[in-house]
Amino acid sequence: MRFCPICGSPNIDWVLPQDWSRWKCKECGYIGTLIVEDGKIADEIRKEYLKKHVNKK
What we know:
Blueprint: E1 12-16, E2 19-25, E3 31-32, H1 39-56
Antiparallel strand pairs: 1-2, 2-3
């Protein structure tokens, strides 16, 4: 499974199916080549992301 490196969301897909090196997160809008494949790391990223964004509201 793949996760966004910014928000930890699994809702990430290729920008273009023909260009497998660029990913886009449908939750935070991240576009880039880096993705996270470790679920434990993604959980930590997700916790920190939600903590920062919940406190802003």
